[in-house]
Amino acid sequence: MSVNLIDVKDLDAIAIGAALYGTGGGGDPHIGKLLAQRAIRAHGPARLITLDELRDDDLIISVAMIGAPTVMLERLAETAPLVLALRQLEAKLGRKAAALFSGEVGGMNSVIPFSVAAELGLPLVDGDTMGRAFPKLDMTLCALHGIDAAPLALADEKGNGLVLDTVDVQSLEGMVRALTMEMGGSCYSALYSMTVAQARKSLVLGSISMTQRTGKALFEARERHLDPVAELVRVTDGHCLFKGKVIDLQRTIDGRWSKGLARITGLDEHRGEDVELLYQNEFLVARSEERILASTPDLICTVDMETGEPITAEQVRYGLRVAVLGLPCVPEWRTPAAIARVGPRAFGYDLDYRPVEQLTMDRR
Amino acid sequence: MSVNLIDVKDLDAIAIGAALYGTGGGGDPHIGKLLAQRAIRAHGPARLITLDELRDDDLIISVAMIGAPTVMLERLAETAPLVLALRQLEAKLGRKAAALFSGEVGGMNSVIPFSVAAELGLPLVDGDTMGRAFPKLDMTLCALHGIDAAPLALADEKGNGLVLDTVDVQSLEGMVRALTMEMGGSCYSALYSMTVAQARKSLVLGSISMTQRTGKALFEARERHLDPVAELVRVTDGHCLFKGKVIDLQRTIDGRWSKGLARITGLDEHRGEDVELLYQNEFLVARSEERILASTPDLICTVDMETGEPITAEQVRYGLRVAVLGLPCVPEWRTPAAIARVGPRAFGYDLDYRPVEQLTMDRR
């Protein structure tokens, strides 16, 4: 079936899956989930569809929150400014969106669009621009395919709105950063407008239902008293890279960036080894003194060792016992052009990317 | 005649008049003049018209540079980004402008619109939003009449553009300030869109031809070896408040604001008295220890004592011999509501406004 009706309970699964794929960043999906659930209670289920439900020249648009996750957590998200941003972008384009989609499968922005979809009765495409979450506007497979985030609309809770029509992503990033700061650290956006024909080539399709399957598997593991971490590894085709206890934490906020590292000391079979997780909004590198365990664009996820509950970089704190999972990114991120854009060196880390499954194999 | 063809030479007069009415701020009109003269050489004279040449429901739009005068002086102004801002605003409104107008009669923005008018073959309305220059977007008679600066388009030399659609002027000021800084300290704008019917009630009409008459009078005084300062006083219905030598100067740049004071020690009949000119982009208060000579919204202008050449706050330097002129503002600025918006207290000066002609009378 190509239409998947997403009800309040389905969002619980999607949100917990999105928290995992958020690789520590993207903001806690909990707030976005509450917002979407409220809209679904008021307007009925959201329709998650495949691109086959649309015509090739239909327009689709992503809606998202932009800003530092820490700030987003402190503000109550609203649907109205997302609708305002969407309307401003539609007016700019002179066309209405036939469907919405999520910019990323990780974090808050995976679930936020469901609130707008439910409220406006628009379907949501089962797909996203990266199959994970990255912090910059051009760190998407769409951008690699020449589809820009701009024109990009921003709005705030007061009813202010604007549309940016920029010529390069540096200008766009700079203006969005300046405006986000001015708007109080976070704001609401509509972006990445494209036709369905463009979406076929550039979106990661099926990624939202993947988060739903992952969340469901976690809930079932808990119900059936299976090891949640093992079940997450199974359903994601991932690897358990490390288990340990958080012993140190360094965190700074720099503009709309949250940066830092978490240090974890090994437990069980990892006793005696310390691992550092380096993050810039998302976890980007997992390393010990001896070796690299995984690096961007592969996904580095932390979950509670006992419950499998995903833990964002914001939630990491001293004493937490965590499992670090490594999930292979989608193959499109592993080309030289993609690695140049989102590999370790793109974030300032002096190391070469190697696929997480190779790194894990080497270790055995 | 209601159409006044503005050629290269006419702009010399307008620019020097605009420098006077700029009351020390608004940026040196020289750069704007060169830009407009280049456009006129390429495309023919600009048409300065009265509102009678237009229909009541015609749309008119102002184009302007926004930013710190110091920064504007260091960048070569261009017409293309003004056209881009205009086009973005027109697209937002879904209507083309039938004519342009100048936001202020003081400084660079009095002459900048001539470049766009000449290039696009659009007429320019003989009027502005304030009959002088003020630094904030809502310090206009239009704003007092409920006509907003927003929707407001911004653009830069790279080709980036955006349209702000804000709900209050605080939001607009904040976003424009943040974006202006991000765009390098100055940028190009289209704003204050209104119908001709609205313009009839809220624009200061005839103010551009007034700057032209003032500039011509100064040129003629020089040719005929008359006292230029006396001629300026005569043609502007103004007052010569003080003559002296600049002995001190304090200047800071704070965001897109240039703030400071100039201290002048009296010459001739003013010997023995020191006067301070306080400015925030424009000269706002002229005072000595004993008395207030003039204050906003009346116009405080400095000119070279010998040549009558207007001197901006940026050009004031130690040793200059200047005459300080006080020009009555338009009567609309003297209502209690207007004084609340642009009187001394609106700029943080703890003094009551009194009309410059009364202050001058008291002294005699």
Automatic annotation (TrEMBL), chains A, B:
Pfam families, A to Z: S-Me-THD_C, S-Me-THD_N
Domain S-Me-THD-like C-terminal: residue ranges: 171-356
Ranges of residues in domain S-Me-THD N-terminal: 9-165
Regions annotated as coiled coil: none
Superkingdom classification of source: Bacteria
InterPro entries in the cross-refs: S-Me-THD-like_C, S-Me-THD_C_sf, S-Me-THD_N, S-Me-THD_N_sf
Protein name, as recorded: Hydantoinase
